[in-house]
Amino acid sequence: MSGVERVRVICPLNDGDERTLADDVLDGLTRPFKELSPKHFYDEVGGELFDQICDLPEYYPTRAERSIFETRAEEIVAASQMAELVELGSGTAAKTMILIDQAAATGTLKRYVPFDVTEAMVRRCCEICGDRFEDAEIIGVVGDFERHLDYIPAPIDGEPRLVALLGGTIGNFVPGSRRQLLRSIASLLRPGIDHLLLGTDLVKDVATIEAAYNDSAGVTAAFNRNVLNVINRDLDADFDVEAFEHVAFYDRGREWIEMRLRASRAMHVKINAIPLEVDFASGEELRTEVSAKFTPQRLADDLCAAGLTLEKTWTDSEGQFALSLSSPTL
């Protein structure tokens, strides 16, 4: 590696960046209809709860996406010719490991870049992958992919790069923000050589979708409420977490799931670190996430608006989830 460490982590966060939560809370809780960004779900507890959600019988997206990797990894590697994989929101790379293994087995893998907002998770992922893929460079990046894409290393000269955004994460953005993010990702890709691998949850029967966000064990409810624990801990707030009810429903017009927290009583909340004081009426709702579901046309339109051309799409056997491969429009 010419004196450069084969396994390393880039952490661009500084004192100013740490105000992201405070800024998002100040912005979201002073709107006429209160909302929070779902990016703040994923502290250590939230990450563990989401791992539990992925194993729930009602939660189909993870199983469906994994099944595509299990059956199509060889095709994806062949179609993308990936020598470098940049994974946005990598987490533990549990599903993507199937793809990385395939690239390593074919001898094309030269670099893996896990990118996630949680530093401990990035470091752990780099440690595991560094041991597992001894011939590849592993460069972790700790950051928010809405703000820190510039810290991703330049692509390897002449080697195909595959950027992956999986798990249906793109659905957490409303249409305008979604297309803006896709345009930012497209800027990482070189025409004629690089690709985007995008995971999208598909439109299907409402009962199946709503059950995935209203599990009988109450894990999703705990995951949803935990964002208030994050604010209490990191911003010295006094939310009564258990006084908020989990709400999740499918909006048929927008074709997305909305998750909300509903105040079970009137309350006055102090967020001392900002500082901010907020009133909630009994029954008032705070939106914590949207999760858009896609039709083939919506997917193609969003990619086109971002300057990308859809090349291939793979779905699971039940047609619940899709992985798509696109490239910069020439």
From TrEMBL:
**Organism ancestry:** unclassified sequences, metagenomes, ecological metagenomes
Instruction: Report whether Signal shows up as a keyword of the record.
Output: no
Matching InterPro entries, A to Z?
EgtD, EgtD_Methyltrsf_superfamily, MeTrfase_dom, MeTrfase_EgtD-like, SAM-dependent_MTases_sf
Q: Which UniProt keywords apply?
A: Methyltransferase, Transferase
> What are this entry's molecular-function GO terms?
methyltransferase activity
Looking at the keywords, is Transmembrane present? no
**Tell me, what is an example of a GO biological process annotation in this record?**
methylation
Which positions fall inside the Histidine-specific methyltransferase SAM-dependent domain? 22-326
Protein name stated in the entry: Unannotated protein
Q: Quote the SUPFAM superfamilies the UniProt record gives.
A: S-adenosyl-L-methionine-dependent methyltransferases (SSF53335)
Q: Name one Pfam family in it.
A: Methyltransf_33
